[in-house]
Design brief:
It is built from two helices and three strands; from the N terminus they run H-E-E-H-E. The protein has about 70 residues and is α/β, with parallel strands linked by helices. It is globular and about 30 Å long.
């Protein structure tokens, strides 16, 4: 399910109960975390071209989003 456009803080807060929360990050270790295969719900934050700025990344981290590199 895709959410409609929203400001970043609202979008992050809406996923507070999602057990797996990720921020696409080319600097993160590649691979998927253990336990993800059976997950019913996953939140993935995709930033704009050029990535999120440091304040946005910090906000995502405070909301429980971890870096994820898909390869």
């Amino acid at each position: 399910r895709l959410h409609p456009p929203a400001d970043l803080a609202t979008a992050l807060a809406a996923e507070a109960t999602t057990p797996f929360r990720f921020l696409l990050d080319p600097g993160a270790a590649p691979g998927l975390p253990a336990g993800l295969a059976g997950a019913a719900h996953v939140a993935v934050l995709v930033g704009p071209e050029g990535g999120l700025d440091p304040d946005e990344r910090a906000l995502a981290a405070r909301h429980g989003f971890a870096g994820l590199c898909l390869g």
